[in-house]
């Protein structure tokens, strides 16, 4: 009798689904505030949620990625933890609806820094796309903070909703792949020289 073969499992679980789902929650929540679908005063509850939910999960994902020797995932999750923490702390310390040029500078810098792990993740197209859209989201939010122009807040909100959807899809695809050992949903993997 032959034992059924089980799909091989990596020794360390990928932190990307955790990172992407935490980001989806933060991005969608902030987008609802930016699009004025809730009162501006709801921004403090969103900020607390980002600070207490998304930031710790991003930090955990960063540590997990470092342990797994995944530099792109570790770098992006670490940058996301810092970017989301900055948004949350400034929102908590500022009056509802106000902007901060200091936060704007930080978010534009984080957006630029996110281009590095996005470029390094090119063999995982969906993951790279999530990080690129997140860079665009942080850049648009940063420009709004720098200019206080309502149009940029609206752009950031719509990018935020798109980011939340893309992040959730990619997390689901990666979770299904980890569970079944095959790609159930397409994530755009490129083959590398090693055949991966």
Rg for CA atoms: 18 Å
* CATH T-level topology: Serine Threonine Protein Phosphatase 5, Tetratricopeptide repeat
CATH class: Mainly Alpha
- Biggest sheet, open or closed, and with what strands and sense? none
Mean pLDDT across residues: 88
- Helix and strand run: HHHHHH
Beta-strand share of residues: under 5%
CATH architecture designation:
Alpha Horseshoe
- Principal-axis shape equals elongated
Report the helical percentage: over 70%
The number of distinct structural domains comes to: 1
Quantity of strands, as a count: 0
Low-confidence stretches: 192-196
Helix tally?
A: 6
Key features?
196 residues, mainly alpha, disordered C terminus, Serine Threonine Protein Phosphatase 5, Tetratricopeptide repeat, 6 helices
């Amino acid at each position: 009798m032959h034992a059924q073969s089980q799909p091989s499992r990596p020794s360390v679980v990928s932190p990307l689904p955790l990172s992407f789902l935490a980001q989806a929650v933060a991005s969608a929540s902030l987008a609802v505030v930016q699009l004025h679908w809730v009162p501006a005063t709801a921004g403090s509850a969103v900020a607390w949620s980002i600070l207490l939910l998304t930031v710790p999960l991003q930090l955990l994902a960063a540590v997990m990625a470092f342990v797994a020797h995944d530099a792109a995932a570790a770098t992006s999750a670490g940058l996301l933890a810092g970017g989301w923490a900055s948004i949350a702390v400034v929102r908590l310390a500022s009056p509802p609806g106000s902007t901060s040029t200091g936060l704007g500078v930080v978010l534009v810098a984080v957006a630029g820094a996110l281009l590095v792990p996005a470029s390094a993740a090119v063999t995982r197209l969906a993951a790279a796309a999530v990080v690129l859209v997140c860079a665009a989201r942080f850049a648009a939010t940063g420009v709004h903070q720098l200019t206080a122009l309502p149009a940029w807040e609206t752009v950031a909100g719509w990018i935020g909703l798109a980011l939340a959807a893309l992040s959730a899809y990619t997390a689901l695809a990666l979770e299904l792949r980890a569970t079944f050992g095959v790609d159930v949903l397409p994530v755009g993997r490129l083959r590398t020289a090693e055949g991966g």
